[in-house]
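User: My notes are a mess, but here's the protein and glutathione's SMILES. Can you give me a structure?
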Amino acid sequence: MIKLHHLNDSRSIRILWLLEEIGEPYELIKYNRDEKTHLAPASLKAIHPLGKSPVIELNGQIIAESGAIVEILINRFAPHLAPNALSEEYTDYLEWIHFSESSAMLPFLLKVFNQYEIQSGTDLKFLSDYAETEFNKIFSYINNHLKGRNFLVEDRLTGADFMLGFVVHGALNRLKIVNKFPNIERYISNIESIHSYQRAINKERNSE
Ligand SMILES: N[C@@H](CCC(=O)N[C@@H](CS)C(=O)NCC(=O)O)C(=O)O
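Assistant: No problem, the inputs look usable. Here's the predicted complex:
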């Protein structure tokens, strides 16, 4: 049995969406961010010492890190969501999975953190310039890659989309970016039309 410890408005949507796509039975255990600090509740620390989400329990083993969870779940339950392990596309696939939690997350988070600073009355000038440059570089790279494509790899849904979807969706929404990265906007609309993604979002929103 799979258990997902899911924090609202977080990277954990990658795993909730993936579980909906896979169709294996799972238990969803929800946690809500603190309204003031936006941090996870202390109860998540009882599951994993870092107190962050996503965390899954798989046959009694506790597993953290969204990229690792995506790879493990796909290997065990949905190998069709990965390219053939001996193909060239498999290296593209791994590159996009890890790009999503490293290169792509960093400029997104830098800009969000600076947005918090500005809201509290300070402006970190260096951070703000650095975040802007890096953000434009990384998001232009993603936008160029998506030209003429609906998905990241093999032009079909793979684990890499579960990873990057959260970053581009979160970044464009939170930073209110419109008409700047048209291929990313099209990619997001395409993801939003996938039934498993819609079910995941509904499960996050519904209170049961
Ligand atoms: N690299 C980890 C990052 C996990 C992480 O930072 N999760 C955030 C949610 S997006 C979290 O739990 N934040 C709440 C907190 O730190 O209190 C992963 O990919 O799973």
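Residues 7, 10-11, 39-40, 51-54, 65-67, 101 surround glutathione (CB under 6 Å).
User: Great, I'll file this with my notes.
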